[in-house]
Write a structure and sequence with these properties.
Radius of gyration: 23 Å
CATH topology of the domain at 126-276: FAD/NAD(P)-binding domain
Strand order of the largest sheet: 4-3-2-8-20-19
Number of helices: 14
Structural class: alpha/beta
Shape: globular
Largest sheet: 6 strands, mixed
Helix content: 25-40%
CATH architecture of the domain at 126-276: 3-Layer(bba) Sandwich
Distance between the termini: 12 Å
CATH class of the domain at 126-276: Alpha Beta
Strand content: 25-35%
Length: about 475
Amino acid sequence: MSFSHRNMSGRHRVVIIGAGFGGLFAAKKFKDADVAVTIVDRTNHHLFQPLLYQVATGILSSGEIAPSIRQILANQDNVRVVKGEVREVDVNAKRVTADLGGKDAVLDYDSLIVAAGAGQSYFGNEHFAEFAPGMKSIDDALEIRARVTGAFERAEITDDPAERERLLTFVVVGGGPTGVELAGQLAEMAYRTLRDEFRSINTSDTRIVLVDGGPQVLGPFGKRLGRKASHRLEAMGVEVVLNSMVTDVTREGVKFKDMKTNEETFVPSYAKIWSAGVAASPLGKHIAEQLGVEVDRAGRVPVNRDLTVGEDRNVFIIGDMMSLDRLPGVAQVAMQGGQYAARTIIDEVENGTSPEARKPFDYFDKGSMAIVSRFNAVVKMNKAEVSGFVGWIMWLVLHLLYMVGFRNRAVAAFSWGLNSVSRRRWQLVATRQQLHARNAIRKLRTYEDEEGKRSIEVRDNLRFGEGRDTRAVSD
């Protein structure tokens, strides 16, 4: 079954794929413009991805960082929201096909903005994902929360000292902002939040290991801030292991190799979390191949100075999916790219500006920041470097500024303030479904591939490029 969306008003049709920072900021820029906008996303929410680790560690609830796309754009009459997974983009026909449980939405466009973002990369070792989830979605954060809290609960009832030690050992792979922030929060949970809440274990015995292949954590922040972050983590009890490459992740733990000595170390661990790399949505390669462009190793698409692809001046690729001037995959790049693409389209529609007359995209670097612990963050803004309490305040202000909605800002500010003076956390609920759903769906998919059929539970969880060409059953 399918339905087709065609603009009957005669207005310029814009399709935006993805409602992350890039897609949302582009859609909002079209407010009051004489265009018809359709934004399509596989979820019904805009995700403030940099705060996922706070959901995973019980500081914020999912609703505070993932407001409804429809509610955000409710007052923009020229915007329509379609929930579905994009299955095909035909640049010659100027058409996007999205699927939700076997029902296709066919979206015709005059201009296309692709902001589908990136997923977790395991550098060719996808089997690591079974035991070490990444952190790119609400589902990921809730699963990690269930794994972390479950580790303490299991440790409470085991009589085996070796198993208890494994359960109380957490390994975070990747020393970027997500890994550093997550390791810091795990330390605060173990040594502050959960203190005195268990009777058979002492959470102060928890071991937290942060592994990274580089010579320092937070590489893009520079050596000085990287050292400060490492020293702060170590002071909190985190073991920072550098110049080490993970070679295996199993149910029992993590194996990594020192890249200088080739010495291998195995750390028994129940809860493993992967934050080491990203890979652009394969949708970028799908579009690039049609336009005769080759993607890089991370799947990012080389774009022109106006963020278009190849010879097609109506297809814009922004955010984590684009490769331009070695810009980092951060929210600011996506936001500014989305606004630029929208302004460019509006200028063409309202002023008749030709593609040849477009001004090139000019990124303004507003800096990078990462929170290490309560009252401590590192901030790099061009040559200026700030750390400690002042950096923490700057982090709070900036993240509140970019959260969507007054209610979410107010609740987040209250939660952060309360967390700074109290060791309690009020968002630690975890369910067995959150813990097991991802791997259960993966196993169900394997079975269905063998049987040549596809249930709605699997079909709705398939991403672009994954097999949907089997007989659909149930709805």
